[in-house]
Design brief:
This protein has one domain. It has 1 helix and 4 strands; from the N terminus they run E-E-E-E-H. The protein has a 4-stranded antiparallel beta sheet, with no helix packed on it. The radius of gyration is 19 Å and the shape is rod-shaped. It binds zinc ion. The site of zinc ion has 8 residues, from loops.
């Protein structure tokens, strides 16, 4: 908290961070390896962006793909094979 006022004539602060967001790009019906049901799996693409004052500015890492089961809600990274089938 010393950085909020220390040494400056005006209080200065920067609010920055990272924000990850998931976008559903597709659904695929396949057997879930967690519950074993053959149900639609949401294909989610996660992008992580640098934010300044809560405004997303630019991506800081390559997007990653995840699968979420619509039956048991298991959330796991999609392997390269599943991602290629999008
Ligand atoms: Zn499942």
């Amino acid at each position: 908290m010393a950085g909020l006022t220390g040494g400056y004539p005006f209080p200065m602060f920067l609010l920055f961070g990272l924000r990850s967001k998931d976008h559903m790009v597709a659904t695929r019906t396949m057997v879930c390896e967690v519950c074993g049901w053959n149900v639609p799996q949401a294909v989610l693409k996660r992008t992580t962006k640098f934010t300044l004052f809560f405004i997303p500015l630019f991506p800081v890492r390559p997007s990653r793909t995840f699968l979420q089961c619509q039956h048991c809600s298991a959330f796991r990274p999609a392997d390269a094979h599943a991602a290629a089938l999008r």
